[in-house]
Write a structure and sequence with these properties.
Chain A: Belongs to the binding-protein-dependent transport system permease family. The complex is a heterodimer of chains A (306) and B (440). Chain A is an all-alpha fold and 306 residues long. Chain A is built from 13 helices and two strands. The two termini of chain A are 45 Å apart. Classes of the chains: A mainly alpha (306), B alpha/beta (440).
Chain lengths: 306, 440
């Protein structure tokens, strides 16, 4: 009967095997090798153990810390603004009596524009010399800043770009808002609650899970923020593809340098793969911290709902 | 949610990990056999511009005539990254060409390209007699010659004769600054209409590797550490740039720069008459001939620091390099192609005449078939000038340039005000990075 017992024991493992194999191949193995390479000097061709050198370099690498600050700025400023703005637009659009379909389409469309195309468009629109925004502002005597060329404004430029393409959030907020039971508002109105109090005491609590979803996905996306920053910096700097002119991500003055950009640059531009592995582990750790915090929040919801 | 985070984290990790390095190839397997079996050579190059592509294909046709049994399968528009990835993936082309010399040290150090010295020795080719001395600096690293030069680039000053209003091209930085102020045309509110010269490092070809030669500035010490902070020449250059930038107003200059068309298009600001003088490479001659044939212009060597008048005539030199990647399948045929493209006088002269690059061998430079006009001759003279220099191969070449360029932007914009501290920080970054990537 031993065989049957063994078979019984192995059967769950067999059922789990697709997941187990996938997990081992795509998570455990890369994670272990990332840790291994982080102790090596590795240019994709030669391996040389260097102890803690890559970690020590990280501690004094100003650009890495700048990129961390920039990424946190985007998490702290851009994500909440996107949620607030998306909610505001969704509120307006759901209340429209006429032309709702047209406005919904107009506000949603930008989120369908490819990232690179949208970013190129923004840099062009906000060009201080030839951009239409400056032309219009100039006509009324206002001088627009050099959005993507001034370190004080560049992150705000990226934030505007993110607000413009808020359509993805608007759609889920609209669905959530239309889902709030009407009788709650009617009951509140009978009790004398006005618009703002209805919003705070009825709308917000009901749509809170959706808000949380928007915040969580927003944080995850922003920790990986790459394309828009890379394209905007590249185009705004005017760097060209010629021998001798090198492009520095983060233009101007590393103000748009995000953590994933720096990781990519170390690994695939400078071929300091060992150091890039250290950065990858930092990103992994930070992502895990955010996951744990947000999971805790979700658990809270579950209990509340029950 | 945890799942999607985990997946994204894994994706990020998978990106930076992967399989281990390929194996060192056994080196050139030179056979003495003369059997000319048909063979197809995979060749990756970076040419894209129509006129250059056509000229290059003509050159390859010339190779086919000489070596009818070798078929060259050329792939255009290749960047260094693609070469690296292909070599790493174990499926490289037989011959690869790169426009930049920045990666040569990396190519040599990691053995991405094969050492060609054994081929040269076997073919009894004396590289020192064939190539000008300066070329050796950017085609070799620590005794390994892993690439050969195919045409060279030099840099000089282009000037628009109409906008110069009868003035002669400047020979020193002071003269350049004075003339810039004289030739600049501005509105009452300071908006620039025509700039005499764009002083900032962000202007198209004003990268520090090109402008550093004007003051004879040094990049690195023999041990690879940074010499930037300790070489006063960089301060001379950057102070000069900052002074002239201040005269224009940085904001005004940036606004003007951002109105320029693409460097490689017919909208290039020099070709459009928006700047009177500009630093550019010799290839601009061919582009002006194609895009703005009516432009009345001249060329001159770059101006030099006021106290270095004897160095006038020097310029920056670099060039296109070509080599045989590790793991190439048809090494002998590949070497024939490399040899043809880098040592055959007719091939080099024909290509030079078509795309107006500087030939990279001494016999080709002296060839009577090389078309010369005064504007192109300037660049041949710069190439021959003993004070002209290149950026010696360095394993962190790109990083070093980026670090200095970032400092230059911070300085010229006024966002950094302590030049000594700024350059000391550049030194620190370069030296730390050297420890990270090369030890020492």
């Amino acid at each position: 009967m031993a065989a049957i017992t063994l078979g019984n024991r192995l059967r769950p493992l067999a059922y789990l095997s697709p997941w187990l194999i996938g997990f081992a191949l795509f998570f455990v193995y890369p994670l272990i090798s990332t840790v291994y390479f982080s102790f090596q000097r590795y240019d994709l061709f030669t391996l040389e153990p260097v102890g803690l050198l890559n970690y020590r370099y990280f501690l004094q690498d100003d650009a890495a810390w700048t990129s961390i600050r920039n990424t946190l700025w985007l998490v702290v400023v851009m994500v909440p603004l996107r949620v607030v703005f998306g909610l505001g637009v969704a509120q307006l659009v759901t209340r429209l009596k006429a032309g709702a379909g047209i406005f919904r389409t107009i506000f949603y469309l930008p989120s369908l524009v490819p990232l690179v195309a949208g970013t190129l468009g923004f840099v062009y629109l906000l060009n201080p010399a030839t951009g239409p925004v400056q032309a219009i502002l100039g006509a009324v005597g206002v001088r627009s800043p050099d959005w993507f060329g001034d370190p004080a404004w560049s992150k705000w430029g990226l934030t505007m770009l993110a607000l413009w393409s808020v359509g993805d959030l608007m759609v889920i907020f609209m669905a959530a808002l239309l889902d709030v039971p009407k009788q709650l508002y009617e009951a509140a109105a009978l009790d004398g609650a006005t618009g703002w109090r209805q919003f705070v005491h009825i709308t917000l609590p009901v749509i809170r899970p959706v808000l949380m979803f928007a915040a969580v996905t927003g944080v995850i996306q922003t920790l990986q923020y790459f394309t828009q920053a890379m394209v905007a910096a590249r185009v705004a700097s005017g760097a060209t593809d010629s021998a001798g002119s090198v492009f520095v991500p983060g233009y101007p003055d590393q103000s748009t340098l995000t953590f994933p950009e720096w990781l990519f640059h170390q690994g695939f531009r400078d071929f300091a793969m060992g150091y890039a592995c250290v950065l990858a582990l930092v990103l992994f750790a930070v992502s895990m911290v955010f996951t744990l915090i947000l999971l805790r929040q979700f658990r809270g919801f579950g209990e509340e709902d029950a | 949610m945890k799942r999607s985070l985990a997946i994204s984290a894994v994706a990020g990790l998978a990106l930076v990990t992967g399989c281990t390095a390929g194996t060192e190839s056994p080196g050139p397997a030179l056979k003495s056999a003369t059997a000319n079996d048909p063979v197809t050579v995979e060749f990756w190059h970076g040419f894209t511009a129509d006129n250059e592509l056509k000229a290059f294909e003509d050159t390859l046709a010339g190779f086919k005539q000489k070596f009818p049994w070798i078929t060259v399968k050329a792939t255009k528009a290749i960047q260094d990254d693609q070469i690296l990835q292909a070599v790493r993936g174990g499926n490289p082309p037989d011959v690869a060409l790169s426009f930049t010399t920045d990666s040569v040290a990396q190519f040599c150090k990691a053995g991405i390209f094969q050492d060609l010295n054994p081929y040269l020795a076997a073919g009894k080719i004396d590289a020192t007699a064939l190539f000008p001395k300066v070329i050796a600096e950017y085609t070799q690293y620590e005794g390994k010659r892993c690439v050969m030069p195919m045409l060279a680039d030099t840099y000089g000053l282009y000037y628009n004769k109409k906008l110069m209003k009868g003035n002669q091209p400047p020979k020193t930085l002071s003269e350049l600054a004075d003339l810039t102020k004289k030739l600049t045309v501005r509105d009452a509110d300071g908006t620039i209409k025509v700039a005499g010269f764009m002083p900032t490092s962000q202007m198209y070809e004003n990268a520090p590797i090109h402008t550093g030669v004007m003051v004879g500035a040094k990049w690195t010490n023999p041990d690879g550490t940074s010499a930037i902070g300790s070489d006063p020449a960089w301060k001379t250059l950057m102070k000069w740039q900052k002074d002239l930038t201040g005269w224009f107003g940085y904001d005004k200059l940036e606004k003007f720069r951002k109105s320029f068309g693409d460097e490689w298009s017919a909208d290039n600001p020099f070709q459009k008459g928006k700047v009177a003088m500009a630093i550019d490479g010799e290839w601009r001659n061919a582009m002006i001939a194609a895009d703005a044939p009516d432009l009345d212009y001249g060329t001159a060597p770059l101006p030099v620091a006021d106290d270095q008048a004897d160095r006038y005539g020097a310029g920056f030199i670099a060039g296109t390099v070509i080599g045989i990647p590790r793991g190439a399948k048809h090494q002998e045929a590949a070497w024939e192609l490399v040899k043809y493209l880098t040592t055959d006088t007719d091939a080099l002269v024909t290509l030079s005449n078509a795309i107006r690059n500087v030939p990279s061998t001494l016999p080709a430079l002296q060839s009577p078939d090389l078309k010369k006009d005064p504007n192109f001759q300037t660049f041949l003279d710069v190439f021959a000038n003993p004070n002209s220099s290149t950026l010696p191969a360095h394993v962190n070449s790109v990083f070093n340039q980026q670090t200095l360029q970032e400092a230059q932007i911070a300085w010229e914009s006024g966002r950094a005000s302590d030049l000594d501290a700024l350059l000391a920080d550049v030194d620190k970054k370069i030296n730390e990075k050297l420890k990270l990537t090369a030890g020492g």
